[in-house]
Amino acid sequence: MAALAKNIARVHQHIKEMPKMIGFNRIPGTCRIISVEEGRVRVEMDVTAQQLNPVGTLHGGCTATLADIFTTMALIATPRGLPGVSVDLHCSYLSAAKEGETVIIDSQVIKSGRNMAFTRAEFLKKTDNTPIAVCLHTKALVEPKQKSEESQ
């Protein structure tokens, strides 16, 4: 139980630091945590101009990146706390979200085994729960390598 509590705290800290990060991990911007529990992370995010495609809606690549980030957070929010590495990411785009709209991202671990994990991220409009996208993300779970005495 102590490992789970520690890993949930890691998720909270990581999400809090996202606005200061560089690269793809900055994409969520100032998302707000709704809840973090074992194997599940729910956040809400206001769609910004930086996240839009040329027709003015949430970019599909941005959606896939958000799915990757938050399903990884859901995996960290487990007793093992392993983020894993992507094997497959599949997104179905169901409707559009425009600048200024608030999107709820509900990410959860469907099944986690010894070497593989299966996760899902659902994107919904906050105003009426209209589905925006559903993404399935398969990850390989890799234990971190221990440093040998020679490399220390």
TrEMBL record:
Pfam families: 4HBT (PF03061). One of its GO terms (biological process) is lipid metabolic process. It comes from the Eukaryota. It is found in: Cytoplasm, Cytoskeleton, Spindle; Cytoplasm, Cytosol; Mitochondrion; Nucleus. One of its GO terms (molecular function) is fatty acyl-CoA hydrolase activity. It catalyses: octanoyl-CoA + H2O = octanoate + CoA + H(+); hexanoyl-CoA + H2O = hexanoate + CoA + H(+); a fatty acyl-CoA + H2O = a fatty acid + CoA + H(+); dodecanoyl-CoA + H2O = dodecanoate + CoA + H(+). PANTHER family: THIOESTERASE DOMAIN-CONTAINING PROTEIN, THIOESTERASE SUPERFAMILY MEMBER-RELATED. Catalyzes the hydrolysis of acyl-CoAs into free fatty acids and coenzyme A (CoASH), regulating their respective intracellular levels. Has acyl-CoA thioesterase activity towards medium (C12) and long-chain (C18) fatty acyl-CoA substrates. Can also hydrolyze 3-hydroxyphenylacetyl-CoA and 3,4-dihydroxyphenylacetyl-CoA (in vitro). May play a role in controlling adaptive thermogenesis. Belongs to the thioesterase PaaI family. This is Acyl-coenzyme A thioesterase 13. It comes from Steinernema hermaphroditum.
